[in-house]
Amino acid sequence: MEECPICLADDQGDERFGCLDICKHKFHLNCIREWHKYSIDLKCPICRIESSHLLVGEGQHAVSINLKMGFMIKNTIDYAGVEAIDTGNEEAEEEEEQEVDVLSERFQDRLAIDTIKVIQCGVCGDTDASRLNLYCQYCELTYHETCLRGLACEVGERTTWHECADCRSRELLELHLGSNEGQIARYDSRSCIILGGKVRSKHSVRTQQMYERIRNAKRSIQAHVRRALDQYPLPLLLFRKTYKHVNKQVSRKLYRLSDNTYMPDQYDYDSLARSGVHTELSLCYHIE
Amino acid sequence: MSRIAKEYGDIQKTLASNDPIVNPYQGLIESLNPIDETDLSKWEAIIIGPTHTPYEHYRFRILIDVPSSYPMAPPNIRFDRNNILHCNIKSPTGEICLDILKPEDWTPVWDLLHCVHAIWRLLKEPVYDSPLDVDMGNIIRCGDTGAYQGIIRYFLAERDRNICR
């Protein structure tokens, strides 16, 4: 019988165990997670070896929990709390300023500030987003066109100004951020990317990509159905209503077959469409 | 069953045993009990002064407060007031300076027996470089072990004389 070293309970498997990835010490999932709300680091309570992941379950169903992420959020919240308390008392501000500095220092390495990117020119450092008009998709750097041209002139390579000053990629994209009234534009690179010259949330990009993938798959399948209809022995185009109805029904059936993806090497869409059209038509005429 | 209740059972079993493997605390920890059986948040322990120290042959009472967040937060442990002299203990309050009892060094796998044992070891091996009783710390840091131990012996003899009266 296994015993959790934190709660000392050796209960009969109604609590799940988690295992720290480096030292392999085991604790109840809830106990070790609760401890991380109190602890100042991610060191193992038994051996003090730091682990960044907690493994839950075994074999195929194993899940690895990233402890660092949650810990970073906890520290950020703690830090925000400390800051809020310190700025609340403005009279004693000067005395406290030093304390806050010490605290910021203590928390600095744990805060994820470096993932928040300020949008500024990679040459002159200007943060007026409305005039920035070029973007390197590889280094996530933005530029003024004038700055890049100026730089190219200074180094005597007038003709090759259209490249990233950092990685030398020539595939600079146009950026249209528009004016944001003197405020510094910034974005969180964990949740946003620059796509097509716009700062967009990764989520929306993923949705768009999924939508486009489905639309393309449907278009490919529809082509097969239409061909089957056009090649049908009867001149179906004469009965527009029937043609549209059969087209719709057969296409829908085929989308469902492969969960909205186009898999021509798995399915013979032409013969499927032909037999689909045939059954659908016989149904139609039966009813009518 | 809560963790502290579970510990209570284990402590009773351990301290009642005469087998040195089950009970390595024989001759170190005399007792460790909740002051009131119905309240497991307040405990007291009696430890026996380690041999070859001025504390030998004396008994010391330790008071333990177990917070509701235990074992995530460490227990609060102190000696009786004006009951002991030691460079890591503030005699008038009984406050103890021991790293493992501080929130930043505490870990939830330790239990009350570990803590009391650690305090017994602190009596045996004072930590000179982080004194809570600065005067006692200065004497021992000067290297005057004789004076340090002499003062402790005198203090303890006086303590027991006052109790007898």
Automatic annotation (TrEMBL), chain A:
InterPro entries: PHRF1/Atg35, Znf_FYVE_PHD, Znf_RING, Znf_RING/FYVE/PHD. This is ASR1-like protein. SMART domains: RING. Pfam families: zf-RING_2. PANTHER family: PHD AND RING FINGER DOMAIN-CONTAINING PROTEIN 1. It comes from the Eukaryota. The gene is YPR093C. Coiled coil: none annotated. Transmembrane segments: none annotated. One of its GO terms (molecular function) is zinc ion binding.
Automatic annotation (TrEMBL), chain B:
Pathway: Protein modification. PROSITE patterns: UBC_1, UBC_2. The keyword Signal does not apply. Keywords: ATP-binding, Nucleotide-binding, Peroxisome biogenesis, Transferase, Ubl conjugation pathway. It comes from Saccharomyces kudriavzevii (strain ATCC MYA-4449 / AS 2.2408 / CBS 8840 / NBRC 1802 / NCYC 2889). It is an enzyme of class 2 (transferase). GO terms for biological process: peroxisome organization. It comes from the Eukaryota. The gene is YGR133W. Pfam families: UQ_con. Belongs to the ubiquitin-conjugating enzyme family. This is Ubiquitin-conjugating enzyme E2-21 kDa. Its EC number is 2.3.2.23. PANTHER family: UBIQUITIN-CONJUGATING ENZYME E2. GO terms for molecular function: ATP binding; ubiquitin conjugating enzyme activity.
